[in-house]
Design goal:
mainly alpha, Helix Hairpins, elongated
Length: 115
């Protein structure tokens, strides 16, 4: 039962970010809520790879047969963080460009300007 309870945290983070994106009236707020939504994947990946009582995956000083955490999970999490930071930086640059061009960050006002 406790195993499934751990997945409540990433779902809660995802729903909180999704709610923020749905109710956002500012592009910067929308981008930050997207970043929060993506951070739920970090927590989920780390929870999937967690092993109770396992050691770090440094095999030079670990006895054979000792349980170790899979290093691929950590590598995937780090890759996810780097990709998330890159996407956030790119979207913030787009928002800055949109603000310079239109003078607003309100998505509803931008919708009226399209065409």
């Amino acid at each position: 039962m406790i195993g499934y309870l751990a997945f409540v945290v990433p779902v809660w983070i995802f729903v909180a970010g999704l709610y923020g994106m749905a109710t956002s009236r500012n592009l910067i707020h929308l981008i930050l809520c997207l970043s929060i939504t993506q951070s739920s994947t970090y927590v989920l990946i780390l929870e999937v790879g967690y092993r109770l009582g396992a050691t770090a995956p440094v095999f030079s000083d670990v006895l054979p047969g000792t349980r170790a955490v899979d290093p691929v999970v950590d590598a995937l999490t780090l890759t996810d963080i780097v990709v998330g930071a890159t996407v956030t930086a790119l979207l913030l640059a787009f928002a800055l460009r949109i603000h310079k061009r239109t003078g607003t960050l309100d998505p509803e006002a931008l919708r009226e300007m399209s065409g």
